[in-house]
Amino acid sequence: MVRGNRIAVIPARGGSKRLPRKNILEFGGRPMLVWTIEATLECNLFDRIIVSTEDAEIADIARAHGIEVPFLRERLADDITPSSAVTILVLGQLRQVLGEEYETVVQLMPNCPLRNAADIRTAITIFESNRRNFQISCTRFDWRNPWWALQRDDDGRGEWMFSEAAKKRSQDLPPLYCPTGAIWIARVSPLCEAGTFYGPEHRFEPLPWQRAVDIDEREDLEFATALLNMRKDSGHGGQT
After folding, report:
1. In whole angstroms, what is the distance from residue 182 CA to residue 45 CA?
2. 29 belongs to a structural domain
3. Which of 28, 36, 121, 129 has the lowest tally of Cβ within 10 angstroms?
4. 91/192 same-domain check
5. How confident is the model at residue 80 (pLDDT cuts 50, 70, 90)?
6. Are residues 156 and 61 in the same domain?
7. pLDDT in tens, 205-225
8. Looking at the structure, do residues 80 and 98 belong to the same domain, yes or no?
């Protein structure tokens, strides 16, 4: 059995109902998946990087950019399976087929292309220095106040989700955060035991919202593209 320290897993299935073929849609002049591949390679922190996919085209793109696809995913390629299950499947395949085991796994979703190598390095440093078992990236709600969220019916009536908070000034309310799929980290043994990155004592680590966008809808893609163009206009293009 070969034992390694860190492995990066990039789950990238071919199907997507809300945004078809989103993982390889053009983003900034290249397939979206490539942004995550390049950020992961730039880290130079991993013993192995794996793209997990059931899709031959995605596998070819990954290989063309220097990433291994040792096996295609024969199951868990639907739109209801959580990404944690996919990463655990990859770890099991590596153990059974290639005789490899790892201490830490970093899951990097390809629909978060604005997260960069520095973000990944920082997240790993925090994870390891705090001796955590589970760490999930999140980002702060900024330009909208989630404390003032409401449900609106067909007649225009609204029901506050947080009725007491709705009476307060925004500056008097604490910040709230939302998980993002950008960088999820876990110790392999606790992950396989828990079956999810939301295992016992999991912790959330924030990313700046400008680099934490999850692209799932057309509007997300347009928003992320606008952020990327702003980055290029400011002279900070690419993964920096």
Report:
1. 17
2. yes
3. 129
4. yes
5. low
6. no
7. 999 999 999 999 999 999 999
8. yes
Residues 8 and 27 in one domain: yes
Domain count, the chain: 2
Is the pLDDT confidence value at 141 over 80?
yes
Residue at 239 is within a domain: no
In a domain, 223, yes or no: yes
- 65 and 155 in a common domain: no
Q: For residue 134, is pLDDT > 50?
A: yes
- Written as six digits, the tokens of 33 are 């998946």
Helices (H), 94-210: 117-129, 188-194
CA distances from 117 to 49, 51, 138, 191 (A): 14, 17, 17, 23
Same structural domain for residues 166 and 205? no
Residue 240 located in a structural domain = no
Interatomic CA distance for residues 68 and 89, integer angstroms: 16
Q: Which residue has the tokens 């034992």?
A: 3
Strand partners, 162: none
Q: Is 125 exposed, middle or buried (0-12, 13-18, 19+ CB in 10 A)?
A: exposed
Cα–Cα distance, 203 to 208 (Å, whole number): 17
Taking residues 2-23, report their average pLDDT.
89
**Whether the Cβ atoms of residue 58 and residue 51 lie closer than 8 Å to each other:** yes
Q: In terms of residue numbers, what domain contains 170?
A: 143-174
Pairing state between β 150-152 and 158-160:
antiparallel
Q: Give the Cα separation of 208 and 229 in Å (integer).
A: 17
